[in-house]
Design brief:
single chain, mainly beta, Sulfite Oxidase, Chain A, domain 2, Immunoglobulin-like, 2 domains, 5-stranded mixed beta sheet, 6 helices, about 35% strand, globular
Amino acid sequence: MATAELERRVIVAQPENSETPLRELRSWVTPNRLFFVRNHFETPEIDRAAWRLRVTGLVERELELDWETIATLPTRSVFATMECAGNGRSFLEKPVHGVQWGAGAIGHAEWVGVPLRLVLERAGVQAQAREAIFVGADRGTEPDHPEVMAFERSLPVEKALEDDTLLAIEMNGEPLTAAHGYPVRLIVPGWYGVASVKWLESIHLTDEMFHGYYQSVKYTVRRRTGSGVCSEVVGEMQPKSEILRPHEGERCGVGLNRVVGVAWAGPDPVEAVEISTDGGRSWARAELTGITAPYSWTLWQYSWRPAQPGPCQLMSRAISAAGRMQPLRHDPLYGGYLIHHSRPIPVEVAPTWSADGGDYTDSAAKAAFEEAAEERSRMQLDVEMRVGGGLGI
């Protein structure tokens, strides 16, 4: 399917929660109109001329900045993959409450904005400040919280002051749209999307730990420690990979097949991707074909030559430059978050390759096909996409 014909897959209509059509995309950067949308409340209507960003709390000078003032400050460009912390929730064996995402609550974009550090330095963060609380303009209720509340999250001051933490005003070279946080959105590269507060309207510096709803009731996980199990706020993205081709249930053939996917590792570059074609019993290295950089996903491919027909289970796992490896199973302590285990993709290997649903019984035709497949397997992925009619990387 041509990129122009693709649309986000709507999971929840009101408020909109929709997925990137991940398996059909052929680009390193996700087009804005196809980039997943996660909303807790309805999208607010904001008049940019009347909008202000307030900085309050433990600062030397409280600020109130309009959009034009922010836009005149020095900007920085960061390519970053953003993933919802609940991405893949529908794949869990035990149903968990929340938006039932498939694999597509993720996208990769170039974010341009003012480093948050510049605004905080202008305000003068006091030494005792511990956290920065970010408040969005969206408001609403939850079933277990009937009082109207704003969407709020916090960051440690040290994270807020990092150069790549942005007050974003552009996404992929275009002004932010309402769906993605217009006029200003916080971007926290390498962290799950919940940290990147949309429709940002205030920042409050405090010396206390923040216990807002979306940081204490929701978006927390439990972890095992030496002293037992403790609660932890969802933060850094975990290493993960997805197989894009072949699709689940697809018919492959004896001989050369090409397995293609993406992998990411939060703040770290992806160091390697490994593939299993036997349900996780053995693993082999895939070839990384895309850019490897902090915050960004990368493309990979693997040439697979099954010798026998029959069912197979394909799996992939990502390894970060810091040595973190994608696990084989979901940790039940994580509940409906941090769903980054290797997910089996069942496929069927047919006795011979089939391009049109029939078998290649003619040996010359089969040899010609295998020669073409071999040549295609040597192509760089962006070249293959152009040859195949898709959008280049």
